[in-house]
Sequence to fold (1195 residues):
Amino acid sequence: MKKLFLLLLINIIVRLNAQNTQYILSQDDTPLPHKIFYCEGKTFRLQGKDFPSGTQEVTDYTDISQFVEGSENVIFDGDGGANIFSQPIDIGFSFNFFGETYTQLVVGSNGRVVFSNNAELQNLHDKAKYEDRTFSDRDAVHPRVQLPSDRYNEVYKNSTQKFPVGLAQIFASYTDLNTNTQATGAGLAYKYKYLTINTKNAILISFSNMVHLNGDSNGNAYILLIDDSTNDKVVLYTKNKQRAGYNAILGIQNADGTKYFIPNGNTEYNNGKWSSTPTKAYAFTTGQTLTPNYQWQSDNGFHTTTKDITFTPSGDTDKLYLDIRFNENADIKKDTITFVKVKKPEIEGPIYGDCGKPATLRVKNPVEDAIYEWYKDGQNTPIGIGTEINIDSGTYFVKMLNILKNCGLASKKVSVNIDFSVIPTITFNEKTFNECDDKGLDKKKFDLESLVNYPKDESKYSFYFTDEQGNTLTQATIKSGEKKTYHIHVKVKDGIASPCKTAEGTFSILYISLPKAGNIYKDTLCDNIHSYDLENFKDHLRGQDYKYSYSLDNGQSFMAAKVIDPHIHSKVLVKIEHPDVNCTSVVNLEFVFNPKVTANQPYFSAIREAQQCASRTESFDLSQFDNLINNSPNVEITYYESEADAKNGRSPVNKGAYRSGMGTTTLWARVKDKTTGCVSDTYPIVTLIVYSKPKPKTDNITLETCPGNTVYNLRQTIDDNFFQSPLDQNIQLDIKYYDSYNIELSDHDIEHYDTAVHGNRPFIKLYYNATCDNTVYFNLTNYDAPHLLTDNIKICSETSYPLEAFKKLVLGNNQDYEFLNENGNPLAQDITLSTLPYTFKFKLKNKAHECIFSEEMKFYQGNPTAVKNTIGTFEKCDQDTNPDDGKTTFNLNDYRNEITDDANAELLFYTDSLRSNRISNPESFINNTAEQTIYGVASNPEKCPTSFSFKIKVNTPVEIQGINDQYLCYGEPLSMSLSNESDYRSVKWFLPNSSVVSLPRLELRYNEVSFGTYRVEATDGKGCISTKSFAVSDEHQPKIIKIIRDNTKIEVIAQDGDKPYTYIFNGKEQSSNILINPTDNEYTIQVSSATGCFGAPKKVYFLKFYNTITPNDDGKNDTWQVEYLDKMKEVSLTIMDRYGIVVFNSSDTNNLIWNGKLNGRPLPTGTYWYAAKWTDPSTGETESRQGWILLKNRN
Fold:
């Protein structure tokens, strides 16, 4: 019972501690449970969590929408590959990480991101120097290393030296990726992109379609860096990563490998085996400087803002709240503790069971998570813990305690009386007997009666045992690790009085026999293994769910598994414990080392078998090198294309027929002992050379000589420039010359090769050996003769021909030749032409090869270009911006057909008879005088030039007369005509409304006139057009701009025209602009100026409202209307009864008469009310009026 009590207490404490507060602490910085049981009057000294400079924490990050594949490729040198680093990537902002600031990052191909402020970070992508080394426990070369560790700074390819200053690290999943999947369309992809998150700059690194090196399923990992001022964040998100047999890291580490973070302290994330949560990411802050402000509050009114508080709870449940806010950001940290008062418990029961069974006591209405201890009266130690207990006869009580058990309240005592007169209580019912030893036995035999210790009284009752199959037995044999169930049967003997005659119970036996104490377990290791993970010891006891701890100091202390050097710690004590049974065994682990495997480095400078000429069937038998590396028959030697593959034993090449690439190929040999499986830690290099046939840049060499010569110099400079690629300096190249008959040439014949003797097809043979050679042939030919551009030259009037012009005309590349006379002397003067035709003989000497060629040229008399004998005068009107200056623009090319019929002739125009002042823009030539002579030359390229001339003339348009601005009074017509109309053959009038009148005179009635600018266009007898604009205006008219009217007067306000005005009201003139006491219902008003010019009239109406309607069809007042309301604008008229019901409503000026009806039915006699609103068109003002109407009907 005592053991059960301890286990229950531990479980409760663990369960409560699993829900500890984060920000409310005790005075010794211990986090407290969210629920605390207290005794009345208890005072607690508490404090809020401190946030010192550089606060670091991990929180959940739920917005995963931005985790998509990046848009930019991470750049690796060459075609990428395994175990390498990328070129540096600009972060885009200054990123604070563990108190350091970084501006660039580098991506490792195995799945990590690193930072450093060392300038050598720029060279981390150098494959020859650096390696993205892994510590994932996939083999002995790559042991499991957990964070924090500076081993992750071991990035040198051929050394365990640490990177200077260190590398800060971020891991988001596997650290050992299969980069070969990059070759497939859906393979591993490294990308990044810049983004903005809530106005904050960020950069996202994505690893898509990750596959572990040993073949785990795909997954994606994302590393997000957010610029958040003093609170920069790293967000890690892993998607679709299934828990498998390979280790992975989700966490971060500082540059010197002394600090790290993993989410929620979950050690599986620290290079363990874990699976991703699809909806959760984790945000890490590593260098935050925060100034906290504390705010405490409780349900009982307590309130303070200090960091440290003293709090006394009072109620049955009293909650204490803490909010922590920061000056640096808007983040709020919240925490709550619920204080539950310890109360005096009540016992429910006893509840009696069947015969021979114990009674049950329970806590009535127990408080969740409270600790209840059960006591038997007279005993100082508890007999059980929990909300109920099974007991036999006696007196009992229960205590409710706080978690520290330093205060509590006890219940009333309860007596239990079970009739034990004959059958004792089976106290071990439903009990498991845990039996354990350290003897390493397979099984053990148990005497059941001795084990259960059931009271024995053969005079009153008997008992026996059965197994699950009902077999009666006294002993049970149980295998180690096995649990079996048995039953006890009790029967009262005949003649014995008892309330019950039989009883039964069930119990189980669990037997554990740990490995025999002192056992020696041996692990045989290779000699070069210097790291051994003590976790591997479990393989000796595969399938056993034991707990292990290890001692390196002969049992003085034990620790969890870690990686050790077996050469230093050759003996280890291993403590083995069972998780459910209190039992321990200590055994020995010893290491035995296999002999060292040797691997010698062969020297290949003298090995001919390591060199071959390229061919379609070329291959190497690598086994010929085995004896040079290790000649033992007990080793297996394989070869690899990279040292990493050799170390991992991954992807060996075809040893019997290996086809290498061209040039030098390096292979690494792996030597493995066939018996022990150990591999040498030296990987000898095998260098293979495959060279192709010597490949010259050309298969043919062309040599030329002057026509008639048959001797050539075949000697060539044969160096690297002669070949397509530089020669391998390790291979001897032989060079030989042969004539057309395959006879090798002497040095003299090479440099004085005569085609008449040796033929026209000599060649050079280039070879490394008899099976690896190539041939270059010579093409022997003569230099080409110069190609003359013409063999005749046209002469017009010249008596000599310029020498330089002759050279250019005769030969396109004349600068490559020297011109000589017939005697071979250089030509030095122009060519004289005394008679035509004339044949000129000369020679050309090539300046490059000095060959001389004889040539001749014929000079002949050319024909003139044809022009017309008579060319007329070309006339134009002066229509430009200054029509009176006698100048305008001519396109002289328009007159080509009047000058010549020769379509191939080029026309040049001049302003002088000497034809020295050429007109450069004949298409837009402006004449100098109204009548001017133009001179020209017509030139056909095949003929001689011919001169011509013609005249151009500018005609000035006739000026329009008799047109002036017009000022019309109201009603006057418009009449316009030109006083010199006879000078024109047509006249057009252009009106402001865009209409055109084509008549000599313009006649318009007043209502046809559009006031504005008019234009008249007249064409004279020479076709020249004159135009003139004039205005037609009403500005002399007085215009009524406002009329002010009431029942006593009409006031008129006018403007424009000459004053004083005369005002006319309904045809009656007066000088005053005010008409007193108007009597008519409507007035037509007009104003005339002092010169008698009338303006446009306006009408004024006086509206008449009546108060009676008698719709009896007698012709009097049968309808109701407002006189002249229909002359107004924007009218509305509404009539309502005394209840406000609308009986008539209209805004139509054609429907303003009310007939005293509603919907066609007469309305009853009574008073009705009208409301009228309108805009007066004469005044522009809005007016309204309301009043009553008396309706008298027959009723």
Summary: The chain has eight helices and 88 strands.
